[in-house]
């Protein structure tokens, strides 16, 4: 796992988990004294909108009502942030293992196998959680549209009162979080191949295939460990510290 995994995961959970937004509407009562021309409505992660409330004039003297937004999008938002946090922690631990326990990792075939399975699971989770969060975000946008929020205010249902939208929330941060969610999926799915190469399945198969599988590796431009290189025949080869003596890599280099 390289630092891109960690950075992209941080961007994903920070942009979503750190979000707070505000919209503003105006209620212009026929009875001007009771109007409020700038009502601020705040909401934030985790988007339990039904718990977010504001006070609106009822256009009857000084009477006011407490109005609640509608909807609960916390499950998708929290799922997305949880996956991002765990993906970040896993890539951090994986980086430490690669750097400090490289020999132990390679001696024991269980290490690469676990790494492979976890990478596949995280890729899938990034896809599912990003899709769920993208859907939830589009619903949050509707639920916090000032034109929709006006419909919740009882004074706005009376024709003689005029309600208006001053501004909607900023969405750039949350749009970014969705983009980073899908980028993380692509990044982790791309890592599957490189992690798979470390498993005994692949090592066994490529021994049989006489290094043919190593050549396929050259078609991937991404090199997560930043240590791979192309030899003169265009074959992708790992540096010597990654190759087993007499293994498939050195075999193909001799050809
Ligand atoms: C209008 O609503 C805001 C909250 O959004 C409140 O702080 C302000 O006091 C209200 N103004 C009047 C005149 O009631």
TrEMBL record:
GO terms for cellular component: synaptic vesicle membrane. InterPro entries: Marvel (IPR008253), Synaptophysin/porin (IPR001285). The chain crosses the membrane at residues 79-101, 113-134, 178-196. Pfam families: MARVEL (PF01284). It is found in: Membrane. Residues 1-200 form the MARVEL domain. Keywords: Glycoprotein, Membrane, Transmembrane, Transmembrane helix. It comes from the Eukaryota. It is a multi-pass membrane protein. Belongs to the synaptophysin/synaptobrevin family. PANTHER family: SYNAPTOPHYSIN, SYNAPTOPORIN. This is Synaptoporin isoform X2. The lineage of its organism: Eukaryota, Metazoa, Chordata, Craniata, Vertebrata. The gene is synpra.
């Amino acid at each position: 796992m390289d630092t891109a995994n960690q950075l992209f995961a941080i961007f994903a959970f920070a942009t979503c988990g750190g979000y707070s937004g505000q919209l503003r509407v105006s209620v212009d009562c026929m009875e001007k004294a009771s109007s409020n021309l700038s009502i601020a409505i705040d909401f934030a992660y985790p988007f339990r909108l039904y718990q977010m409330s504001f006070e609106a004039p009822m256009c009857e003297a000084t009477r006011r009502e407490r109005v609640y937004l509608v909807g609960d999008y916390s499950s998708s938002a929290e799922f997305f942030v949880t996956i991002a946090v765990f993906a970040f922690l896993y890539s951090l631990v994986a980086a430490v293992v690669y750097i400090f326990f490289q020999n132990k990792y390679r001696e024991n075939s269980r290490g690469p196998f676990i790494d492979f399975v976890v990478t596949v699971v995280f890729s899938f989770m990034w896809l599912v959680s990003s899709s769920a969060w993208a859907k939830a975000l589009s619903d949050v946008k509707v639920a916090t549209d000032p034109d929709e929020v006006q419909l919740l205010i009882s004074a706005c249902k009376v024709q003689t009162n005029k309600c208006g939208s001053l501004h909607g929330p900023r969405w750039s941060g949350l749009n970014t979080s969705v983009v980073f969610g899908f980028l993380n999926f692509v990044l982790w799915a791309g890592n599957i191949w490189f992690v798979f190469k470390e498993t005994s399945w692949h090592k066994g198969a490529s021994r049989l295939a006489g290094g043919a599988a190593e050549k396929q590796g050259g078609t991937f431009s991404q090199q997560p460990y930043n240590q791979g290189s192309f030899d003169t025949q265009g074959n992708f080869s790992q540096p010597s510290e990654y190759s087993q003596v007499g293994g498939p890599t050195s075999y193909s280099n001799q050809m």
